[in-house]
Amino acid sequence: MVVQRRTDQTSDAPRVIRVRVKYLSVYHEININSQSSFGELKKVLSGQTGLHHEDMKILYKDKERDSKMFLDLCGVKDRSKLVLKEDPMAQEKRLLEKRRNAVVEKAMKSIADISLEVDRLAGQVSAFETVINKGGKVEEKSLVNLIEMLMNQLLRLDAITADGDVKLKRKMQVKRVQTYVETLDVLKVKNSTKPQTQTQYQQRDLLSFVDEEEEEPRRDSGASSSGTPAVVTNDWEKMFDSTSAAKAVEPVKPVPPRFKWEFFD
């Protein structure tokens, strides 16, 4: 494979030349490699003039030179004179590009923030889905609030205007949020068809031990507040009391006399 060199092998090594560049009414003397490009010369002049190197145009022999062209190939030698001018069109183009990049960066950051929020909400969707699919029941208000939060993320995504990769990422997040909303709609229907007694049973089952411990103190406090002493009786005592009461209300039968008495008038 043959590769053509920019200079002949017999030529001398690159040397440093001094060029004079006029900007407005000031001359700037720049020491630079003779094989450097005009773009490299612009970067050196940027530090001395304060102009951005993309906002410059350099004229040599009354002709504008492209930034990719080389000094020696254009005939620039030691003590050559060049003219530097500001390029308004290039400056406007650069500012527009900078503004466009800022918009893209802001949009990317917004999408990243929304993605993190959707990740957090997705965990709640998964938790509700697990509970309902296993036969449980959740508050309908919780499902409605979660749907509203996801819809707010859709509104935030809709407010982002971008093209290219940013638009593609926004579209992916929109589809993702829509999928979660559809899942919650299905769960909402399933949750509404479950009987209320099922949830109450599950809650009593979870709190059975706590309720048993709290029930007796609650009864004692209720009895003391009413002013009547609490009496603890067993089943056999209740049976005894009921038998005694039955005997107490039983009518007394008259006893027949043992002797026959004769009554005289």
TrEMBL record:
Q: Where is the composition biased (Polar residues)?
A: 192-205
Example GO molecular function term? protein-folding chaperone binding
PROSITE patterns referenced in this protein's UniProt entry, alphabetically: BAG, UBIQUITIN_2
Q: Which GO terms describe its cellular component?
A: cytoplasm
An example Gene Ontology biological process: protein stabilization
Q: Name one Pfam family in it.
A: BAG
Q: Which residues form the BAG domain?
A: 110-188
Q: Which domain of life is it from?
A: Eukaryota
Please indicate if the UniProt record lists Glycosyltransferase as a keyword.
no
What PANTHER family does its record include? Answer: BAG FAMILY MOLECULAR CHAPERONE REGULATOR 3 (PTHR12329:SF50), BCL2-ASSOCIATED ATHANOGENE (PTHR12329)
Q: What name is this protein filed under?
A: BAG domain-containing protein
